[in-house]
Amino acid sequence: MRKSTIVLIAISLPVLIILALIFWPKATVTPPPQTKLTIWGFASQTEMQGVLATYRAQSPYVSTTYVQVQESTFKETLLKEWALGQGPDVVMVPSQQLVEYQPFLSPAPATITQYTFATQKTLGIKEETTVTQSTVAGPTPEFLRQNYIDTVVNDAVIAQKVYGLPLTVDTLVLFSNRDLLNQAQIALPAATWEQFVQQVPRLTIVDANANLIQSGAALGTSDNILHAQDILALILMQNGSEVVDPSSGQANLTADASTIQALNFYTDFARISKTIYSWNEEQEEALNTFAAGKIGYYIGFSADDATIKQRSVGLNYDITAAPQISTQHPVNISSYTLATVAKSSNNQNVAWGFVSFITNKNNSAVYANASFKTPMRKDLLNQLITEQGTSIYGILAGQALTARNWYRGPNYEKAHAILSDLITTTLGGSLALETINSANQQLRLIQKQ
């Protein structure tokens, strides 16, 4: 063979190999069929857009539609849709109501099939999209224990099966009118209930006819306090009592000394004969009254901050941790939703893949930042506590670790009403022992329905 021919082959062979690599068909997984996924939740479109955009980029075969639903009509509309075999594939369910919705939901599968799309140009000549398929484990109770705050395992697991994953959590906090505290010469908001009961009389103004001119705190009643049941449950739990057993979810409101003490403590704020009297059933709704600058202390969830800002003009107020019996052993109340998959969905694998994707570490952080809410993953909470310290974000992150639900039964609305009646009946003069026993019996009846 001539030398020039050998040289030509030597030069041409690498070129041919490169061209073959560029144009030769590559082994790739067949793309999955186009899928439509409908998601219902309470969050706004703005809060969800970040994680939805990231999901669409990774899973272009899935078309997602997010619908923001109103809490007031959520249950009625959702159950109606499910009865017709319709409704969303993924729905954000309040954690306190998971047991109630569980018959309509699918538990997490053992494995989830995922597809990853990657587009690249080879030597800047040919653009190709490759699809790879992988199988990952579905969420398990142990996965929840390792990655989320403790309450999630009790709330999201039914019969050892995981029915949902959370994104963020809210907890009760203390709102304080800084101007009113300054006028009463109170430098720092109360951190304990002992400090709270010392400060409330200094913040309360009553006229000669015993009419409340200014309230030290909105506590003691039910109908005109937005979160009365949660606040009572908080005091009960801090004092060693439970509305339901934390492990079994069964009604456990026993009429012992700690329960009676907690109930009387709460209602004493609405008893005119008590030194801590600062509220009554004739007052306007507490959140609006605080926004109007007429209350020293208001206890609510941090989400109430947005409403207060909307309804107040130049109100000077602080947000601090919820009062505790002991700051060394804090107890807090949680409020959050779980991303769940409807049993009626025809896209079970895709839906659970979506739930797992939006609740992973990176996307949980994206959503938490967009919504100004507290993430539920331990790794993100640890970062917040370290970086935010005593800011509201650090406070909420710290409270999340000791927060849990006070109810996980089959009818949260009825349980809510039972606690409301318990407050009203006690305030009306009935014996605490009798009202507590009656409330516990009613809670147990719900379990049997």
Write the layout of secondary structure elements.
Elements: H1 3-23, E1 35-41, H2 45-58, E2 62-68, H3 71-83, E3 90-94, H4 98-101, E4 105-106, E5 111-122, E6 126-137, H5 141-147, H6 151-156, E7 157-158, E8 161-162, E9 165-166, E10 168-177, H7 178-183, H8 193-203, E11 205-206, E12 212-217, H9 228-238, H10 257-267, H11 286-291, E13 295-301, H12 304-311, E14 317-321, E15 332-335, E16 337-342, H13 348-358, H14 361-371, E17 374-375, H15 378-388, H16 392-400, E18 403-404, H17 412-427, H18 432-448
What would you say this structure looks like, in words?
This protein has 18 helices and 18 strands. Mean pLDDT is 91; it is low at 1-11 and 15-27. The strands form four sheets. Strands 10, 11, 12, 13, 14, 15, 17 and 18 form an eight-stranded mixed beta sheet that branches. Strands 1, 2, 3, 4, 9 and 16 form a six-stranded mixed beta sheet that branches. A two-stranded antiparallel sheet has the order 5-6. It has helices at 3-23, 45-58, 71-83, 98-101, 141-147, 151-156, 178-183, 193-203, 228-238, 257-267, 286-291, 304-311, 348-358, 361-371, 378-388, 392-400, 412-427, 432-448, and strands at residues 35-41, 62-68, 90-94, 105-106, 111-122, 126-137, 157-158, 161-162, 165-166, 168-177, 205-206, 212-217, 295-301, 317-321, 332-335, 337-342, 374-375, 403-404. α2 (45-58) packs antiparallel against α14 and α17 packs antiparallel against α18. The termini are far apart. The chain is globular, with a radius of gyration of 28 Å. It folds into two domains: 35-109 and 140-167 and 336-384, D-Maltodextrin-Binding Protein, domain 2; 170-335 and 410-448, D-Maltodextrin-Binding Protein, domain 2 (3-Layer(aba) Sandwich), CATH 3.40.190. The protein is an alpha+beta fold and 449 residues long. The protein is 43% helix and 21% strand.
